[in-house]
Amino acid sequence: MTDYSDRDAVIVGAVRTPVGKGKPSGALHGVLPADLLAHSLRTLVDRTGVDPADVDDVIAGAVTQVGDQAANIARSALLGAGFPETVPGTTVDRQCGSGQQAVSFAAQGVQAGAYDIVIAAGVESMSRVPMGSSVLPGSNPFGTGLAARYPEGLVAQGISAELIAAKWGLTRTELDEFSAASHQKAARAAKDGLFDAEIAPIAGLAVDEIVRPDTTVATLSGLRPAFHSDAIAARFPQIGWHITPGNSSPLSDGSAALMITSGAAARRLGLRPLARIHTTVAVGSDPLYMLTGVIPATEKVLSRAGLRLSDIDLFEVNEAFAPVVLAWAHATGADLSKTNVNGGAIAIGHPLGASGARIMTTLVNALYQRGGRYGLQTMCEGGGMANATIIERLG
């Protein structure tokens, strides 16, 4: 067993809801986001046996903080989960990496001595709070300075994915093969019970709703490009228009939560640490090719950790779009057979603010299932950023 110190930040519990379709027809549409997050929080303290009164803080990621997800949803959810009024909560937004950033902030707080027990979480109900709805008509959240710096204008993430596919010479067939494999891996993992330990059923849903076991390259090949426009084609003639709904992550609903404690607190409470958070980093990257931040983030976290790529047993790279993971693998030399081994966001879904915590929950369990030591997780983020985290399995 790998030892850990009193000041190490260790994960002692991790749960998630099933991921639902982010549409009004989805199984979780009827659940308010605060209640969706409260379910993960309540399940987490129930499974760990920790008294919620001992939790120093709840840090939750949420991207579209408006409407049903407004007003510091972390605090609303923890109160809704029955936590004492003395427990504070805060909500963070690092775009798609918000849940992973919550984990980083929680770990850093433990390592600094500010927390003994903290929960890192995330939530997004894309069926109830549509992506982009926080940008009001006529508003300008970007400012004049950014517009002056990028006079030709930035682009939507789907176009960034197209640019990445073109830059790395990725074909439509390669993207669809990767995407079909994501569904097949996720379906196999569910069938084999590999998600059972992490999922907390809710609203009658006990499995991820979006996974399609019968997905094939042939079925995906019939889908039309999702982001084509004549104006963009004129500006970027190199684009091959390969990005479709089938090789992109779908709109999704879900939440996840991890309990992170100091090594000393885990020993005092008799908790069994699952993993220690070894190293965390965040990087900025080109906001035009905004999804490539996973490449420098991987390089930075390995350097800071004093590890090599070959030391990593499992990788989780968020499948916002298929070219993100394939370009990352080309650039870093990482082994795709060790990447997203139980499927990724293209199949399972990508509830924006929750995904970082969802993926970390899956990574912790996958390390145990496969007997691995080190896991590396990285996520691309809107605006050209990425988080990367290395965890080390304990026990």
From TrEMBL:
Report the PROSITE patterns cross-referenced here: THIOLASE_2
Record InterPro entries: Thiolase, Thiolase-like, Thiolase_C, Thiolase_CS, Thiolase_N
Q: Which family does it belong to?
A: Belongs to the thiolase-like superfamily. Thiolase family.
What protein is this chain from?
Answer: Acetyl-CoA acetyltransferase
Q: Does the keyword Nucleotide-binding apply?
A: no
Per UniProt, the keywords (alphabetical) are: Acyltransferase, Transferase
- Top-level taxon of origin: Bacteria
Which spans of this chain does the record mark as coiled coil?
none
List the Gene Ontology MF annotations in alphabetical order. Answer: acyltransferase activity, transferring groups other than amino-acyl groups
Pfam families, per the entry? Thiolase_C, Thiolase_N
The answer on whether this UniProt entry bears the keyword Transferase reads yes
Q: Which residues form the signal peptide?
A: none
